[in-house]
Automatic annotation (TrEMBL):
NAD(+) binds at residues 10-16, 104, 111, 128-130. Keywords: NAD, Oxidoreductase, Tricarboxylic acid cycle. Catalyzes the reversible oxidation of malate to oxaloacetate. This is Malate dehydrogenase. The lineage of its organism: Bacteria, Bacillati, Actinomycetota, Actinomycetes, Pseudonocardiales. The active site is at 186 (proton acceptor). Substrate binds at residues 91, 97, 130, 161. Residues 155-322 form the Lactate/malate dehydrogenase C-terminal domain. GO terms for molecular function: L-malate dehydrogenase (NAD+) activity.
Length: 327
């Protein structure tokens, strides 16, 4: 089988450093799939990416067929099968949201165009760089020949955080928890849903049986975990974000476990009242390389209000990038 072309943008960054070695050792696509890595960086970070590539060489990974480093998006995405868009413009102090969206438009528009021009017909795109949902929307808007379902954004780290916080609360193993869902935006408004999650087959919300804890402790702890890590570590989460990116693509390609689902931000088909086309997080199952939204879940009032608030934020972001002419 020909190696799979995997492009990583922002390859010299923190997440990139935690991601590349695991892709090359088979954690993205499995232990039988060879990969060609394409590293995209801005010109001033190409040298650092070359250093990472030297280390990748020094690992002599059996699955790593080749590494190319470039600052040219067209080259980076030519023939790409899996695109991990990690590099983004972080929000800096005093930066307005419009400036942030505009700066990211300058990154994700040309990347969308390059994916449109050169990607393989089976390309799958995961956007990690924030604001991830809206960056994915921008890239997708500039790749009209690529089915829009191929553009996704990451809420898997939020999902994993939701699992581990719940396991700690109820004193179970993370593997005892199934059917966790993150709804909405990868932001502080995201909603981890314990009403449809299960702990050893029982409703997680009834196992916890404490709505005040859910509203005042659990949801904010999951949503603000990134800030807590910055506070403790002095740097933002990188290894856990990389791990979640691997989980997202691995499950998309290889399928979710029977009787379980995962969370992915994907273009809405209108399910659960989320406006069509918004890239919002849903419960999904994956099979045969495709995902589908889990249908028929009950959304109670508590959940409805929170899902609506997060989706309203996504609508605002979409309208803002539309007003800037980015989509
Ligand atoms: P990181 O590798 O730590 O983060 C990269 C992006 O991932 C940021 O937008 C960050 O958002 C986002 N992210 C999403 N989820 C998480 C999470 N849970 N924890 C942490 N980050 C998360 O950033 P670095 O600054 O170390 O590296 C970025 C690299 O990207 C640099 O090397 C830069 O040169 C490169 N870059 C490349 C571009 C390109 O290839 N065209 C364009 C722009 C930058 P947030 O900041 O909100 O945490």
């Amino acid at each position: 089988m020909a190696p799979v072309n995997v492009t990583v943008t922002g390859a010299a960054g923190q997440i990139g450093y935690a991601l590349l070695f695991r892709i090359a050792s088979g954690h993205l696509l499995g232990p039988d799939t060879k990969v060609n890595l394409r590293l995209l960086e801005i010109p001033q970070a190409v040298k650092a990416a070359e250093g990472t590539a030297m280390e990748l060489d020094d690992c002599a990974f059996p699955l790593l067929s080749g590494i190319e480093i470039t600052d040219d998006a067209k080259k980076a995405f030519d023939g790409v099968n899996v695109a991990l868009l990690v590099g983004a413009r972080p929000r800096t102090k005093g930066m307005e949201r419009g400036d942030l969206l505009e700066a990211n438009g300058g990154i994700f528009k040309p990347q969308g165009e390059a994916i449109n021009a050169g990607a393989a017909s089976d390309v799958r795109v995961l956007v990690v760089g924030n604001p991830a949902n809206t960056n994915a929307l921008i890239a997708s808007a500039h790749a009209p020949d690529v089915p829009r379902e191929r553009f996704t954004a990451m809420t898997r780290l939020d999902h994993n955080r939701a699992l581990s916080q719940l396991a700690a609360k109820v004193g179970c193993a993370v593997t005892d928890i199934k059917k966790m869902t993150i709804w909405g935006n990868h932001s502080a408004t995201q909603y981890p849903d314990l009403f449809n999650a299960e702990v050893n087959g029982q409703s997680a919300a009834s196992v916890v049986n404490d709505e005040a804890w859910l509203a005042d402790t659990y949801i904010p702890t999951v949503a603000k975990r990134g800030a807590a890590i910055i506070e403790a570590r002095g740097a933002s989460s990188a290894a856990s974000a990389a791990n979640a990116a691997l989980n997202h693509v691995h499950d998309w390609v290889n399928g979710t476990a029977e009787g379980d689902w995962t969370s992915m931000a994907i273009p809405s088909d209108g399910s659960y009242g989320v406006p069509e086309g918004l890239i919002s997080s849903f419960p999904v199952t994956c099979s045969g390389g495709e995902y589908s939204i889990v249908q028929g879940l009950e959304i109670n009032e508590f959940s409805r209000a929170r899902i609506d608030a997060s989706v309203a934020e996504l609508v605002e972001e979409r309208d803002a990038v539309k007003a800037l002419g980015l989509i």
